[in-house]
Predict the 3D structure of the following.
Amino acid sequence: MIQRTLGTALSLCLAVAFALAVPAEAEARPRSASVKRAKRVKRVKRRQRKAARKQVRRRARVNRRQANQRARVRAGKRSGQITRGEARRIGKQQRGVRRAERRAKRDGVVTRKEARRIQRKQNRASRTIRRAKHNRRKQPRARR
């Protein structure tokens, strides 16, 4: 009696295991088009998220550098190293950089090429600031 019960239980377990097992030909079967499409969409979305993060970093880098250059000009004016004319010329350059940045952002995407163009403008402005601060011209001090 016990043997019969164990045998029945064992055969029942084997039947369930075979029913749940995936046939060998089903494993080798190619994926359906909907599964492929879903994976492709997932890949594209991942790329888009990565590109969006790069956008944020590019914009942050440009903005941080602009703030740094603005602070350098302010410090130069305060110390008298930068004259009014030099400050006006540097301000004009900075407006050009901001304009280029706005133009690049207009379509919602700052491409690598646009970022390089902005960076070149910032490099030029940085050189101008350095030359203005170190050209030994002094802002005349106001009389007290």
Observations:
- The helical segments are 2-20, 24-27, 33-79, 84-105, 112-133.
- The chain has a mean pLDDT of 82.
